[in-house]
Every structure is written in C-alpha cells, then in structure tokens.
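Hi support team,

I've been running sequence recovery on a batch of backbones for a student project. Most finish fine, but this one hangs at about 90% for roughly twenty minutes before it completes. I'm not sure whether the input is malformed or the queue is just slow. I've pasted the structure tokens below so you can try to reproduce it. Let me know if you need the job ID as well.

Thanks,
M.K.
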C-alpha cells in the first residue's frame, strides 16, 4: 500500500477519510481521542499545500436524511481551536459540485447522510472519487466495513493511499502477527465466544498462552462444570472444547461469584467445581489471578482485548484491575484494542503504559482473525 507520506500532495485535491465517530452527549464531544489520532494526516496535507477535504461517519442516522444530532458540526468547531490560522468550513452539499482552495480545511458532512453509503452504492463511490486527486484512507476502525466512503471510493479514485494512523495500526498489530517476541500472551475477554471464536482460533495458533475471561471463560468452564446463572453460550461448548484440547488456554480455577447481578452484589470466592445453581460468575479468583500475573511477568509480547470480569461492579473489578496493571507494568510490547478495553485503560489511568492502543474495535479483531480486511484488500489492489 502507498503511504500518504510518500506522495507529493502540493496543490492536489486530497480527500481524507478519518474516523471522527466520537462519543457525544447533548451536542458536546465526550472524548476527543479519535480526533487527536486523526490530526497527523490533516497536518501533513495542510503543510504540503494540498486542497484538503476531511470526512467521516458519526453515529447511526437514517441514511439519506439530514439529522443535526449526527452532524459533524461540533467536530468542525473543535478543529477551529486546533487550526486557528486555517479557514475551516463544514460543507453539507458536496456530491455534485465542490470548489476548494489551498490553506482551507473543508469538512464534508457525515457520510451516512448520503443514500447508499452503507450499501457501497457504486454511483456514490464514483462521486466521492470525483472530488479528489488523492484519496487517503486513515480510518482503520472502519476498515472492516464495505461502505462507499471506505471501500468503493478506492476503486475509482485517481490514487489511493493510507494515512499515518492507518499505517501505525497495521505496523503495531503486525508486531504480534509476524514473528512476535516470545512468549506471546493473548488475553481475550468479553461476553460472547461466538463473536470471537475465529479470533480465538487464529490467536491460539500464534500465542504461547491464551487467557480467557468473562462470558468467554464461562463457556470454557461449562465444558466440565456447572456455572449457575452465569453468562455463557451453550451452543459453542463443543468448539470451546476443541480449542482447549489443541492449544494452551489458561482457564480460571477459582472465581468470584455473587447471588445477584448488580453493583451491590457481595463477592464470594469459590473453586471452579463448586458453583451453586443460583450464583453468577463475575470475576476470577485469587489463585487464577496469581497464575495469570506470573504468566504476564514472563511475556515479551501481550495482546489484550476485553475485560476479565464485570469490572463495572466494585466487588468484581479486582481481576480486570490487577491484570490491566500487570500489563501496564510489563516490559513486554503490548497492544490493546476494543471498546471495553479502552474504557478499562481510562478507568485505571494506564494509557501511557500501553505500547500501542488500537482505535479499532471490530476492525482490530477482524485484522487479527485474517491478517487482512476488505478495505486493506482494496488498497492493495488499487493503490499500486
């Protein structure tokens, strides 16, 4: 793939597809992390004297209908403070005719207001492509989606390349996927083994140890034990059994359980074989936690996706907290990704101690699963 930094952008019409899908509350930006990650691509284009267009999706509006709730207006307002010497304009009607100048930052309104965006409509893809001389894909978090602004446009743009954020994402994940420093430890938590089964299978072939937590761990535990009222997926017990038999999984031997699923529930540690019918598994026990921290101390590479327990409940956050801190204090190269994982990193204030934090959730997992994505495939085919 061609990198943005390898191209002369001077006086070129440059369309940057960023991920500006930031959390909002009452029209205000809650977290600016994704905007900050998108700034390098914008700065490169402006510094080279390009005619810069920036676009993204935001939320889930009804396609084809403008809704101020999902407007990129607040992001345009935010960027005015970051680029106070640049003229910044939010443009709503840009598909038919668009004249832009150097030293301007033109923000093209939410792509999901355009009918056909999520269906990868061919005519819409052509319209995006007609806006630019160079298309820059810098939204790694959307690289698993076959949309017009992420996928279809690549086919018709005169030239397509990847931005600095996209490049950094791939390079960091490839440090795990291609000849990683060993031991490589993968931590996979969350509620559903079904949504992560193929990721688990891919990682199991690569990792020296797979640590499972949350509902995923419960599914593995249920192979041989009762798990009470705990979240799990009975339809995937056979697949979990197959994975356990073939690869090195660290499955909890003791657990923290409660009688009800609430923040007020009291915590009780039990061996994995002693769970009562009316109990919920909500965290790992101290013996399991000790085993995991010992494994993490020896790790040279760590991949982390998902919580180990119900970290939102005070009496059941210990496992997730200790593991997060163990990763943060490790000398290993660590990559973390996924929405809940990012929330944990913020909660325990360890952002500066993780080697790389991926902006992608579904794209992060998709890339690990197949070492590719639909958008990457398109870029490889059309950006040479």
């Amino acid at each position: 793939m061609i990198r943005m930094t390898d191209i002369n952008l001077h006086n070129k019409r440059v369309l940057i597809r960023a991920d500006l899908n930031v959390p909002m509350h009452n029209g205000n930006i809650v977290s600016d992390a994704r905007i900050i990650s998108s700034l390098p691509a914008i700065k490169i284009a402006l510094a080279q004297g390009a005619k810069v267009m920036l676009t993204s999706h935001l939320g889930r509006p009804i396609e084809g209908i403008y809704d101020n709730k999902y407007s990129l207006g607040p992001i345009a307002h935010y960027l005015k403070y970051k680029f106070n010497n640049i003229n910044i304009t939010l443009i709503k009607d840009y598909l038919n005719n668009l004249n832009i100048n150097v030293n301007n930052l033109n923000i093209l309104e939410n792509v999901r207001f355009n009918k056909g965006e999520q269906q990868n409509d061919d005519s819409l893809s052509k319209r995006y492509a007609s806006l630019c001389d160079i298309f820059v894909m810098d939204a790694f978090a959307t690289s698993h989606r076959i949309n017009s602004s992420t996928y279809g446009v690549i086919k018709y743009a005169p030239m397509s390349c990847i931005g600095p954020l996209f490049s950094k994402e791939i390079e960091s994940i490839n440090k795990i996927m291609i000849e990683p420093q060993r031991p490589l430890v993968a931590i996979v938590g969350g509620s559903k083994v079904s949504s992560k089964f193929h990721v688990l299978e891919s990682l199991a072939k690569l990792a020296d140890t797979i640590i499972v937590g949350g509902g995923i761990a419960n599914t593995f535990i249920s192979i041989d034990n009762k798990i009470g009222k705990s979240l799990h997926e009975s339809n995937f017990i056979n697949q979990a059994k197959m994975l356990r038999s073939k690869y090195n999984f660290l499955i909890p031997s003791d657990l923290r359980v409660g009688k009800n699923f609430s923040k007020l529930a009291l915590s009780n540690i039990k061996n994995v074989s002693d769970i009562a019918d009316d109990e919920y598994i909500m965290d790992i026990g101290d013996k399991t936690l000790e085993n995991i921290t010992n494994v993490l101390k020896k790790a040279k590479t760590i991949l982390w996706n998902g919580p180990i327990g119900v970290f939102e409940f005070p009496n059941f956050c210990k496992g997730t907290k200790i593991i997060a801190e163990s990763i943060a204090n490790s000398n290993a190269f660590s990559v973390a990704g996924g929405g809940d994982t990012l929330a944990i990193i913020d909660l325990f204030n360890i952002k500066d101690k993780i080697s790389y934090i991926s902006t992608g959730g579904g794209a992060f997992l998709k890339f690990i699963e197949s070492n590719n994505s639909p958008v990457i495939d398109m870029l490889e085919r059309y950006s040479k």
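--
Follow-up from support: It reproduced on our side and the slowdown came from queue contention, not your input. The radius of gyration is 23 Å. No action needed from you.
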